[in-house]
Amino acid sequence: MKAAALIHTHRARRRWATVFGSALLLAACATHEYPQEHTYKFYRGPARPAAELATLALGDAMAVRINERQITHSDYTHVEFLPGTYKLEWFCGYGVSVMIEPSGFAGREAAADVELKPAHRYSLRCSRTTGPNYQTFQWVSDDTEGRLVRGTRRP
Length: 155
Prior knowledge:
Layout: H1 2-30, E1 39-41, E2 54-57, E3 63-66, E4 69-72, E5 78-81, E6 84-95, E7 105-116, E8 121-128, E9 136-142, E10 147-151
Parallel strand pairs: 1-5, 2-8
Antiparallel strand pairs: 2-5, 3-4, 3-6, 6-7, 8-9, 9-10
């Protein structure tokens, strides 16, 4: 009887060690962090100091087209520009009730010609109201000056 109890205890310990080891391995995989910030350089030549560049954060937008170049938020979070005027077209995605949109998703596009100044940080923003007559809002903000550049901000 003593040998059977010893074997049972050994198996129980081995099971707990396996469960614990698996949990540690799973936790290690789950907590691995990839770099969150990726910047697209929208100019030729070597990197330049921030004081010479305008920076656009994709913010709430899923993608932006800049002068016909498509950049997705899943690949890049920021774009660096030389100062100047650029045509920005951005896409915003919203989760909505399936009673409003059968797919459960709604998307809206916005476009604006925006003058980007050196040493300024800009953001693409998206928001919406809720309910059957929901409205969407898309805008560009100058985060350096705290002002609306183009579009309509949610009230």
